[in-house]
Structures are given as structure tokens and as C-alpha cells.
Amino acid sequence: MKSPNVLILILLATVGISAAFAETAQKAPSAAALNRTVSVTLPDSEQVFPPGAGAEIANSQCMICHSAGMVTRQPPLRFGEWKAEINKMRTAYGAPIPAEQVEELATYLTAIKGKQ
Ligand code: HEC
């Protein structure tokens, strides 16, 4: 037969565990706290591409999926690299820009963000 000391230890442990659970339950946030309204201010982003020949193509085709800043904050590229970048958007990501607009857009992007 187990000694009374062991039984007392088991009893104390059970009481201790129950008390710990009760404390955890008290700390859980209430439904009202979870449903509260918060307000956040998102960082500013460039709204449109800078003016220039071809800007309207960029504004209509290049902001379907991301901001203008995603393009203008990249390192400068050569004309051919811009063409490759536009074609990557078309083939890898499914950008619907017509093939006949790629040259004009690459010329525009080289003008605003080109390198020699
Ligand atoms: C169909 C959606 C879509 C369209 C439309 C689109 N892009 Fe993107 N673009 C992406 C995705 C996805 C990424 C990668 C985002 C990331 O890595 O977080 C990206 C990233 C970029 C980058 C960053 C460098 C890189 O290769 O990841 C550049 C530059 C860029 N796009 C240029 C353009 C230009 C110019 C146009 C207009 C012709 C355009 N994008 C239109 C989807 C698109």
C-alpha cells in the first residue's frame, strides 16, 4: 500500500495544476478585446509614374499588381534589361501588357531609370 505521504503529494500536485489552469483561463482576452477596432496609417507610396512619353502605358499596365515605386526604386537598367524585365512580368507573372507596347515602355523606363 502507498504511504499517506505519496497520496498527499499527488493531491497537492493536482490542486497546483488546477490552479495554474484557472490562472491561464483568466488571462485569455475577452471577446470584446478581440473585436476592437484599430487604425493604422500605411506608408506613402508613389501614386503614378513620372510624366513622359510612355508613362500612360506604365500607369495602366504596371500597377495592376504592384506600386509604381516597386519599379522606380529598382537600380537603373539598360534598354535591353528593361525589355527583359517587362517580358519577365509578362511570362513569369502573367502581366497582360501587349507585346507591341514592350518597346515603347522599355524606352520610357530607360528614360526615367536607365543606365548607359
Ligand atoms: C501580373 C502581375 C504583375 C504586373 C502586371 C507587373 N508586375 Fe512587376 N512584379 C510582379 C511580381 C509578382 C513581382 C515580384 C514581387 C516580389 O518579388 O516581391 C514584380 C516585381 C517587379 C520588379 C522588381 C524586380 C523583379 O524582377 O522582381 C520590377 C522592376 C517590375 N516588377 C516591373 C514591372 C513593370 C515595368 C511592369 C509593367 C509592364 C510590371 N512590373 C507589371 C508582378 C507584376
TrEMBL record:
SUPFAM superfamilies: Cytochrome c. Keywords: Signal. Residues 1-22 form the signal peptide. GO terms for molecular function: electron transfer activity; heme binding. This is Cytochrome c. It comes from Paraburkholderia elongata.
